[in-house]
């Protein structure tokens, strides 16, 4: 890998999510027939997510973790630009239908410790490439939550309940906008759901999700992924 770009060898190893994929949750589909006429997986047909659509650049696997984890935990902020470029390419059609970019927020103590929000860095990169405005502090985590990685889907949903709101004074920037919500990884969707509901409550016209990587179908199967 070279700075800001992928070398040929890296491209061969990367598992990028391309068509066919689920229009609603972004998961890779094994074939077009599984998505039907709406390009929607069975889980999303049965229990639609609270957001409008989702896209991911990569499958979340050993390869994509080599970009995402150093960005999150090891100060490799240069990886945000690499990921933003791939995310923008993956979401080319989606970007025609959004008007504002917003990152998933970090709680203040985690932000102080890390010194940056990796989702905000990627959101700013996407906004520059797509020519869209970005409000990096539109959303606020109002309480600390446990690290979600080791929690079940149900535990994640309960942990994120009432944990996110639109920051005071930012409601006018959200009202009437088609919001693109940016994060690093989409797993069960509990964080994305909490953010989406906060944005819709503030008057957003719609919310679409764009992430660097999407986990596999084992997560999608859980009904806690969707609004009940």
From TrEMBL:
InterPro entries: ComF/GntX_DNA_util-trans, PRTase-like, PRTase_dom. Belongs to the ComF/GntX family. This is ComF family protein. It comes from Gluconobacter aidae. The lineage of its organism: Bacteria, Pseudomonadati, Pseudomonadota, Alphaproteobacteria, Acetobacterales.
């Amino acid at each position: 890998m070279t700075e800001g770009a992928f070398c040929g060898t890296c491209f061969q190893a990367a598992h990028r999510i391309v068509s066919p994929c689920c229009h609603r949750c972004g998961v890779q589909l094994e074939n077009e027939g599984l998505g039907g006429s709406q390009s929607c997986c069975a889980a999303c047909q049965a229990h639609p997510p609270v957001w409008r659509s989702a896209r991911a650049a990569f499958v979340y696997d050993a390869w994509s973790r080599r970009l995402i984890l150093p960005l999150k935990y090891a100060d490799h902020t240069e990886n945000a630009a690499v990921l933003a470029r791939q995310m923008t390419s993956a979401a080319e059609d989606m970007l025609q239908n959004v008007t504002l970019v917003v990152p998933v927020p970090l709680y203040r103590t985690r932000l102080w410790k890390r010194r940056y929000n990796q989702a905000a860095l990627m959101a700013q990169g996407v906004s520059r490439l797509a020519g869209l405005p970005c409000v990096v502090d539109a959303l606020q985590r109002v309480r600390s939550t446990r690290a979600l990685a080791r929690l079940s889907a149900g535990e994640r949903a309960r942990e994120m309940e009432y944990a996110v709101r639109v920051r005071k004074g930012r409601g006018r920037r959200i009202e009437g906008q088609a919001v693109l919500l940016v994060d690093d990884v989409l797993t069960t969707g509990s964080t994305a759901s909490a953010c989406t509901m906060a944005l819709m409550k503030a008057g957003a016209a719609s919310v679409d999700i764009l992430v660097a990587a999407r986990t596999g179908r084992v997560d999608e199967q859980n009904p806690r992924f969707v609004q009940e």
